[in-house]
Structure formats: structure tokens, C-alpha cells
């Protein structure tokens, strides 16, 4: 059969690190979950490689592709444990990040306030320097002011500097000159300029993106260096690749500099894995539900492709680079239930995490969580969890939920059901908002639940949303790891044009496309890609006078044909699709031109089986509280459900990485890819 060849995808979440490993010789997939080690990020990775070697016979020396997603960057922002930074900007514009375009997180709340910035106000220094809006120089940077700022910021403890000047999207020369001067004066400081991170118009968006990149740089760089050393110590020959916010991957050397591009890597990787599974199953329209220990993430897959956008939130801060569009809410398996001062039951956003975790884990946690509620109702606790690493203690779960039950004057079972109902209602509201923004009806979609908690609550959510079907993959708990395994190399590049669409603009469009295309091909070559490159181009466009742009895909042939009419028609159609309105006679502006350079990842083939109709048999019946009474529910083992298997709910399907809760009135079948299809009775 030839030499061993393993390809490994890894994703670190808030509670577990997930592994998805493919033996390309046989097509066999090995999956694994290991509890995270928050005090020593990366140590769990070595534990997982050891277990894969022991349980699956995977030789680390035979790993030819290793793709890794991590929440280190996002957690650094959320926990505010990043580098002490200073910001150098134009004199007179020191309040750029404080003003934040005068937008408030919640416009209609009287108690709303902006978050504290990642760069304190006394660490912002104004430098006399100015470019005009056309890119011509009005005043060169004052070197004496730079020297004074460097001395002051070092005295205040800054270890890194962000340089962001007005109109640097036109010309980054001023920023580059100041960066060079800082390197001469204080070589111990690391420096990022806004033009090198993401050279886009609008100083607030450009500045905050550069700040996020710098804020997480030391932790991500240190983490990736340790990762490379650990893999080398295990004799893994593959260069580590990192999942990106745009659903693609990049090498570790790139990740140490372009940290901002991996802040949403985990969420994006999950959607990427779900899109691959949807294409394999022939499912054109999917709503994904990824529930981990701390959050529930939602995304849309249309025609087998993830949807993209800008402005995704990293904690309290917007990220203005292309990312897979994901909506998140603080509802996860570890989300803590509580009773507020008005006697109202609430769930999340606080989470018990992996340490100590839900009470039923027996690791010292004593809060009632969503997972504990599932145990008390009887949906969980009938098998080992997380590949044998966890045993559910129903007594501890009942005690934790019981304390809330006493406050509410309900039984533990009724309280547990209320916790689940609140969790589902919170997710329902988030999906409705996301669907409204995207202009879609989720009843036209199938739900794909994954993550450790997605199958626990996904079917209940789908039923409440009026969705017709649920499609669940064979290994839901490791879909994010799979997403890295099948990901392409993908680099994003931008040019701001800020010009009216007209025949006279076409030469500038062609020039920008050619320059970005060359930059994209060079980037792929630096990543080690030697094959063909796919270039995808979109424009951020608007009607003149509008404040916001919409993303409009372009065909490069329109540029070659000197055809602004085709570009205009595409924008009108996109505007009508989103807002049910367009203005064929309106003047159109192109603000940004964005290009994605894509180098195809490996073509992987997972085994399939003949889909022959067969009735599945439950292993046994277990009692479950289903909202009104205790009902006997059939317990099935996922490993026993072969292609073609059929059964009906209520049912529990237990497997190594998760548990499916399937209510009454549900028909279930298994397809040739071993996906579980659930449909609801009318």
C-alpha cells in the first residue's frame, strides 16, 4: 500500500482540542478530543498526538500535512492580556479610536458605553505629519516629535507601537519612515504600520485592525514558535499551517506577522469544514450551528460556499478584514445558568470552561450549566464522553440544577428543561437577526449542527425555526479540525480606489487587478504553493452619497473587455437582492477592490458505503424528561448506524465526540457518507 501518509487537522476551542486525522492510504478517519490546558496552551496538542499514535497507530514522522487552528489570539483580546501598546498618529487626531465614528455598541440603550480601548489614551501620541487626501505631502513627519514620543512610551512600559496616519492607504511612505526611525531609536520595540497590515480607506477601521494585529502579536508569535519546536521534537516533517479568518490557511512564519488574519480561525474553520461536507452530501443551502463550551456560532452556506464579510467582532472590537461571516452568541455547553435579582432564569454568557467545567464533569465545578441540564433531563450520561476522557456524574449535575430549582420553586427536571428552553430561545433570536441581515429565509435551509454541543440542541432549534431538515456529519465534534484539513491556501489583498464607476476608471481597475494578482501569486509562492492560482475579485461598491458599501463579485473578463456596464449591472442586482431596491440611473462608486489568491488544498476522498434501506435497532431504552413527563427513549450507537439505517424519534444517538438528542416526530436515516438526516413530521 506504499508508505504511510497522514494528514492532520487540529482545532483548539475553549474546552477541548479536536483532532481529525486522515490515513490517505486507506481513507480511514481518526478523530479525537482532548481537554484543553489553559495554563499551558499547546501542551494538549502533544497529548493528542501521543493518543493518536497509541490508539490509531499514527506515526508522527508520516504526517505530511498539519493544519492548526487556535483561539489564542481571540482569547488574548477577550481577556485583555495582550501587549502594552502605544499609537502614533497625526497631531490633532489622537482621539481617532476613542471617537470610533461616533457609533455606540447599542444605539438605543441609555446605559450603553464604549469599551475601554486596547491602547490607553495616554499612550496615544500625535506626530506633526500630513498627507493630503490625494496622497501628496503637506508636512513630513517631525523626527524630533517621534523621538520624544518613543522616549515617553518606553517610560510608560510600551513594548510595541502602531503607526497609523491619515490617508496612508494612498501612500504608506510617512508610516514607513516613522517605523524606520523607531527601529533606529529603540530596536527592542516591535512596530506595525496600518498600511502594511490592511491599507484600506477610513482611518478608524485601518487603525483598529493594525492595533488588533499588534496587540496579539507577542502571544501568537511565542505560541507559534513553541508549536514549531514541539512538532520538531516529535519529528513531524510537515510545516505547520494555520487556519485563517477567511477560511483558508497560511504558514506559521506568515502567522507570526499577520496575526490579525487568524483571530477568527476556529469559527471560520468550522464553517469551512461544514461547507466541504455540504458539497459532499449535495446540500446547497445550509445553516451551520457550532456549539462548543462557551459559544454558539452560526453561518450560512449557499451553493456549497461559505459567505464572507467584514466587520466581524473580536470581543468588543470590529475586525475590518475579509472573514467568513459568523454570528456568535454566548450559549455553549458550559454556559452557566443563574437566577437574576428579579427571579428570571438566565443562561450565559459566563461559561464554566474546561477548568473546572460543568458540574457533571466532576472536576470541581458547582454551577448549573447547559450540559448539566441535558444530564438531568436524561439526554446525556448514558455513555463515556470525549473519547473516554469524561464520565458524566448525574448526581453532581442534579445537585447543581437543584439549587436553581429551589430558587425557582420547580422540580430539578422542570428547571433543567427551562434552561434548555432559554438556551434555544437565545439562539433563535440570534438566527433571526442573522437571517434578516442576509436577506434569507432559514426555512429554505437545512441545519448542520456540529461541535460538541451542536447535536445536543440543534434539532430543538431547527424545529423552533421551522426548518425542514437537519443534516449531521459522522464526526460532528471535530468538524472545525476537518475544516483545516481540507482548506486551501488563501491570501487577501486590497486596493482603495474611491472613484466613480465610469469608462475612464477601467484602466485603473485593470492596473489594480494586475498588481494585486502579482502580489497574490508571490504570496502563494512564499507559502510553498507551486500549482495554479485562482484569483477571485470583488468590489466594495455603493451609490454616490451612501455611507456603506456592499460586496459585489466581479468577473475579470469585464475588466479585459473594458465593460463598466457589466460591473454596474452586477452592483444593481446585488443591491436589489439585499434591499429589494436598486437605482439603474444612480451614480456608482467603487471604494475598494479586493482580491483573494487561492491555492487549492489536497483533494481528499473519504470512504462511502452503499445506501441500502435497513431498520436500525436501539441498544436499549432510557428514561428522558421531554418537557412534560418522563418518556422511554431509544438509545442508538452511532458506530452501529450503517448507511441506509432508518429509525424514528424520540431517540438518543451516542458517539465518541458528542450526543444527539432527537425529539418525537422525527424521522432519521443515514446516507452513503454516514451523515445523519433528520426530517420532521408535518
Automatic annotation (TrEMBL):
Residues 206-490 form the Hydantoinase A/oxoprolinase domain. It comes from the Bacteria. One of its GO terms (molecular function) is 5-oxoprolinase (ATP-hydrolyzing) activity. Residues 7-183 form the Hydantoinase/oxoprolinase N-terminal domain. Transmembrane segments: none annotated. GO terms for cellular component: cytosol. Residues 509-678 form the Acetophenone carboxylase-like C-terminal domain. One of its GO terms (biological process) is glutathione metabolic process. This is Hydantoinase/oxoprolinase family protein. It comes from Azospirillum lipoferum. The lineage of its organism: Bacteria, Pseudomonadati, Pseudomonadota, Alphaproteobacteria, Rhodospirillales.
